[in-house]
Every structure is written in structure tokens, then in C-alpha cells.
Amino acid sequence: MNRILAGCAVAAVLASTADAHVVLSQTSFAPGVSFAAFFKVGHGCAESPTTSLTVEIPEGIDVVNFPAKPGWKLEVTRARGAAPISWNGGNPTGSIHSVTWRGRLDVKANDQFGLMLKLPTRQGAIYFPTVQTCEAGENRWVEIPAPGQAWNSVPHPAPVLTLIAADTTTAGAIRIEQPWTRATAPNARTAAGYFKLTNSGAVADILTGGSTDVAERVEIHSTTNVNGVSSMRIAPAGIPIAPGATVDMAPAGSFHLMLVNLKAALVAGQKIPLTLNFARAGAVRVELSVAAIGALAPAEADEHAHHH
Ligand SMILES: [Cu+2]
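^ thats the input. predicted complex w/ copper (II) ion below
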């Protein structure tokens, strides 16, 4: 499953529950950029109108602006447990721990509460624990599903935003980040493939192999370093990825892919289609970005620029 399909699945889940849950209007975005977060309230608490909404801002996220919200008063706290400060507009400086809007929203009405955020550079899910207070009672949207579980596997999930870089592919619980290789000399026989593998699920998986049109076969190699001499060999068991583990397949790492018997030279700037096979996640298509000959790291992903 590619990341666009993954997004559709999330959207389908939200469509069936959005009338009751507090959710973000957009549930995935790129890391490291500004993001207009709109928290959607679709219903009051049981039969009672909403009178306030408090959103906790997770560690590592800056609030850079509060869009105006006529009819609602704004309060912020600077730290957990700190006294609320009423906020009359203007851009905040310093850390913000929570934001509260106070007003009134009819039980069956819906509305959106916006914040301009600066997102962290890491990938993955970010939860915004949110408390919806009503004239009678409250809804605490503060639960966080266990790794590998669906967002709505808990009764009152916290609104979630998933940060996914443009050159990241997800398949079930497996995430493949920034796949790359190097340009080759005209008669080179092999090229290495590098990427970062993460298993965000609760069950182990194994990268068992792969295939590509540009080479006769794809092997998984492990690198060992004995007395300063590094050598590589086929890893017959593949690459196991434990629940929660990340395997960084980098030039200095323990594992890489080997594209063996290249059919043509790889040219810097190309994208090389590659299928990776996982024991659980199945076949996953990615593209290796071709960096310069001898590069020790991938070229800076130009896709990031689109979000600035
Ligand atoms: Cu190798």
C-alpha cells in the first residue's frame, strides 16, 4: 500500500466517525514545515452544547499563530498545570502547552478551531489530547491507540496528525524512508541500495528480498567489520524488523541491498523502481533516488521544497 492509499483508508475511517469524534481536518502532512491545524468538532457531549475546547500541544511543536475565531475567547497555558493566560491575538513567543477556546456551539452544530503550527522534522503520529467541555459533562479525546492498532480502536482517540515525508512509503506497519542508491561507472556490475526501515506495529516482520528491472537480481547483504576490514555477504535470513525497531540501511550500516548484474549504468537524478518483499507486509514498490557517484548520503530530497 502506498502512502496515498494509506491516507484514503484513514479518511474512510474518519468519515464514519467524524460526526462524533474531534478530529483534525487534515490527518497527514510533511514534517518540518508550517501547518494550519483545524480541529473539527461535529457534535456536543450527548445532548449538551459545547462550551470550550482545550487542545494540548505536544512536545516539539510550536504554535506560530492563532487564526481569529469570532465569538470565542482564547486562553493558553505555558506549561502543564500552569494557570491559563487569556490571549487577545498576536503571535505567541515561547512554548505553549495548551490552547483553550471558550464560547458556545450548539449540540448538533459543527465548527473548526484553527492553529498555525510549526511541525517537527521527525516522522510518525502526533497526538493532540483534546478535552471538549459542554454545559453538561465533557468528552475527553485523550486516548492513544497501541502501536499497530487503528486510530479508532480506542473509544475516545486523541486527534492525530501523521507526519510523512514525500519520499516515504508505508505498507501496513512498515515504513520505508528515503530509498537511494548511487550513480555507477559505465561497466559497473553492482549498486547498493539504502533506506531506513521502521516497524511501527506490534508484530515482527522480515525483509526477505526484492527485485528491480535494472538488475538481474536483488540481494540483501550484511556488512561485517573485522580488524578494520569490512566485507559483505548475503544475509540468508533477510532483515528481521522487531516491533518498534528501526533498521538504518546506510553506507556505514550493517545491512544494504545489492543490485547485482546491472543491465545499464545508473545515472544521478534517476528514480529506479524497486519492489521490496516483506514476510508480512508483502510486496512494496519504492523508488531509489540515484545520487552522485561515491555519495555517502542521499541528495537532499527536493520534494520537501514544495511545502515551503
Ligand atoms: Cu553488498
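The chain has two domains: 3-164, 169-294+303-307.
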